[in-house]
Specification:
By secondary structure, this protein is mostly helical. The protein is built from three helices and no strands. The chain is globular.
């Protein structure tokens, strides 16, 4: 007999559950983009917050303002946040 793990793995870092009321067209846009990117709606909102923070941090530094640079900066911000919580990225 064999056993398989099903479902998604639990997150290794703590999360706080929040319920947001979004305009229905924005919620639909987030859901569509999450589906395209292979994320859940919650992780898509998290990703968008990271991208927004990356843009804010890059603007005063005159860094190259490309999408790839923004995504790289968002990854660095997430890694730094996770490191602060004692979790390896």
């Amino acid at each position: 007999m064999t056993s398989n793990t099903v479902g998604r793995p639990k997150r290794s870092r703590p999360t706080a559950r929040k319920n947001y009321v979004l305009d229905s067209s924005i919620a639909e846009l987030i859901a569509k983009q999450a589906d395209i990117d292979g994320r859940t709606e919650g992780s898509q909102v998290e990703y968008l917050a990271l991208v927004y923070e990356a843009i804010k941090q890059m603007t005063p530094d005159d860094e190259p303002f490309t999408f790839a640079a923004i995504v790289a900066k968002a990854g660095a911000i997430k890694a730094e946040l996770m490191k602060g919580e004692g979790v390896e990225a």
